[in-house]
Amino acid sequence: MSRFITNIPKIVVAFLLVAAIVNLLIGVFLRYVMIEVTDWLDLDPIRFTWVEEVGEMLLAWLTLIGAAIGVRERTHFTLHILHLSPAAQRRVDRVHYALVAIFGAIAAWYGVKLCLLNRMLVTPGLEINLAVLYASVVVGGVLLAIYAVAMIVAPPADDRTVVPLEVRAE
Length: 170
Hints:
Elements: H1 2-40, H2 50-73, H3 86-117, H4 130-153
Helix pairs in contact: 1-2, 2-4, 3-4
């Protein structure tokens, strides 16, 4: 059960990615096919301004939750220009993750403020409450902070010092 709970952000990101792709395809279809069809049949055009709004919401949620997953999975880009001892590298990693946790907490804090500030505003097309958009900052920031603290408290095995085996072709 705990494995399922830890995979919830990945499942959400997968769903958001599929939804964003479907939304994009619908937008392309409506723009490049249905406009021609409605013009040819002399019908009222189909409104598709909602596609942009849905895409913006999906992209915000996808990006912020995905960034937190990247912290937990250690898949963000890193540049190793200093060759430090393993103990010094662990200290640098702890400072790094502490800064990420602080950034996540600040983002979540200001995301809450944005949600409260914009809770009465809606998007022009679908009239979705703008707090839904800014809630992505809250969720992403909280996940960033939690995952960064987890990396400080229980860091994964250091796989950067492992020397890869040579493969010899005979």
